[in-house]
Design a protein that fits this description.
Distance between the termini: 26 Å
Helix content: 25-40%
Structural class: alpha+beta
Length: 298
């Protein structure tokens, strides 16, 4: 899209900004409530309810990743887990009429402050180089250099991403390491940059747990609970991710199993480093402007 065609004051961008303003407040308020002994479910529900109170809608279930976990972990319906002396990543999203903002922060209760600081410094450095025409591979190189400088590894198979309308992950991908050929950022791009740092090898794999799902395709099912779940999914969440605990139908877990078996929804397994490792994360959403970028989740 040519620069002259992009109106950064249009309704679309104002909704991205409003989502970012809400999200910034919720991120800080939620992080302050994380402490040893506090319930994971309490924190997730606090953040999601607060988003709604402030006029937004959760863009995806609050991710609460512990120690070696990096993404896609959210409490189950009856989750009774509490925080210990752990490294905790909170990844939270907001949308206004499908226009998104995405942010993440590490709350370190494990006594590893430098690992928690590494992705935050990498994110600051990455934002400094964002402007029209920059190659995303160059952004990845900056992230990698800062994290390496702290003595840790970037998680190389997780990336930042674009944010579309009712789409949480779109192009361009923004790597967390140097790559020879990335995408070129343009005025009007809305992207989330999210460095991950680890004291492990720097690659995550899928675990066995799934609590987050999204709609894969339209379809029909005969089971009553599955039909009710599908109606809520298509009406309320559309193509955005949702949690099992958000479904209002009876026997939600069984309904989801049926929908997944029919390839109508797909699940997001928890992504994790090797056991015994720690992962930290920091993320902001930004709009690429003619002079650089505007961070919406500051």
């Amino acid at each position: 899209m040519a620069e002259s065609e992009v109106d950064l004051e249009s309704e679309q961008y104002e909704k991205h900004r409003e989502a970012g303003r809400i999200l910034s407040q919720v991120r800080e308020e939620t992080a302050e409530r994380v402490d040893v002994g506090v319930s994971h479910l309490e924190i997730a529900e606090y953040a999601e309810d607060r988003i709604r109170e402030l006029g937004g809608t959760p863009a995806f279930p609050v991710n609460i990743s512990i120690d070696e976990e990096a993404a896609h972990a959210t409490p189950a319906i009856d989750d009774d887990a509490t925080f210990g002396e752990e490294m905790i990543n909170l990844d939270i999203g907001v949308h206004i009429d499908g226009w998104l903002a995405d942010t993440a922060i590490t709350v370190d209760l494990s006594g590893n402050p430098e690992l928690a600081e590494a992705p935050a410094e990498a994110l600051e450095a990455a934002i400094e180089v964002v402007e029209p025409g920059v190659d995303t591979g160059d952004i990845g190189a900056v992230i990698e250099e800062v994290i390496d400088g702290h003595g840790f590894n970037p998680v190389v198979n997780l990336t930042g991403h674009g944010l579309g309308h009712w789409e949480q992950h779109t192009s361009p991908n923004i790597p967390n390491r140097a790559v020879s050929q990335g995408a070129t950022l343009e005025v009007g791009d809305v992207v989330a940059i999210e460095p991950f740092a680890t004291d492990g090898g720097g690659k995550v794999t899928e675990g066995g747990t799934e609590e987050i799902f999204s709609l894969e395709r339209e379809g029909t099912v005969r089971n009553r609970q599955a039909r009710a779940a599908l109606k809520q999914i298509t009406d309320e969440f559309r193509t955005l991710p949702f949690a099992t605990r958000w479904l209002e139908t009876d026997r939600a877990e069984m309904a989801l199993r049926r929908l997944k078996r029919n390839d109508i929804v797909h699940g997001y397994p928890v992504l994790k480093e090797d056991e015994g490792c720690l992962v930290s994360q920091k993320e902001h959403t930004l709009i690429v402007t003619e002079g650089g970028c505007e961070v919406t989740t500051e």
